[in-house]
Amino acid sequence: MRTGIATFTLDYGRCPKWLFDRMVILGREMMTVIIAEYGPKEFIKRLSDPVWFQALGTVLAFDWNASGLTTILTAALKEAARGREKELGIFICGGKGKTSRKTPEQIKEWSAKIGFDNNQTKALVYNSRMSAKVDSALVQDGFQIYHHSFFFSEDGSWTVIQQGMNEQTVKARRYHWHSENFKLILPEGRSFVCEPHQAISSQFIVKNPLNLTARESEKTRQISTEIVQGSIKTLLKDIELLEKYATPYSQSLELKFRGGDDWDEQFLKLVNLENKEFKWHPVALEDFRNNKYLKKILLKIAAQEPENYEKLLSLEGVGPKTMRALALVAEIIYGAKPSYQDPARYSFAHGGKDATPYPVDRPTYDQTISMMKQFVQKTKLNFSEKRKIVNELDFQPKTATNF
User: Phi and psi at residue 253, in whole multiples of 5°?
Assistant: First the structure.
């Protein structure tokens, strides 16, 4: 089952204290039972499944499809584990907004307490930082990351749950990562820059995003790396060509292109304003003019000569605009077209009510809910509380498919 990105409506409200306190208490009970049953490693892995994560949020009495579930649930789990991290065997770092930027520091603090060596600690910090960079710089889907939580266990297993917002569409999108995807990496397999997510699920599909993590974008990644390894003069000349002819979409209809000897035939064909497909193309939306910072970053990158695309992305100062500019040069000048397909494939984790892309997988849904019911029954909650939660779980699979 591929799961990994879920989309929800933005929730601008605040979680009332009574509800958050209740979620902490229930969260502590659920974590204790699940970890006793399956161990901390499996608990970390389960969190990387969006529907399992959603079901856990439902047990803790939060809305099924509200964006606040992500931020409040991870905060409640972090608070529930406070003081019992070593006993439970899981460590939770980061959170929403400014707290997300404390993730590296918190990883280092916990690593020191449990005796990780320097290399193990560096690896965890790198995994956290790169997952955030990928979802902001390589998956350019219009969602700005504002929440980042990093869960890990003493054996080094980790899960990232981060969320982005798109205020124009009033939607939020959640990204799930799990360390298991990186343990058996082969040259042709996944990496941080090639389909790295645990899997993908979404209610809302973005039209024509720039997806530089897709396998179809491999040529773009290769060319982008090669052009920063080559002559910086050639790269700047390529950027200047885009700078000269590319304008924001709002001005593109007024622009009159004039051909010349320096025009590349493929570029001429692409920027033809009669071509309706070009109107959504990133090069029509980009404003390269007077961008001294971009050129400064490109000079810095070229001087460091990154050995591969992942190293390129990891460099300080490299962000969405840099990776987008290199992708456009790779496509327009060198013909390496990246993927403009949303990496989100499924409506929720098990299908959609309109059978797009396939009918809802009711057996898998039922299995997830049944598992949660068993965990609830094993907690130390009173009978009426257990019955209330089970009733909520019975209701949620029906509402979950009614989007």
Answer: -70, -25
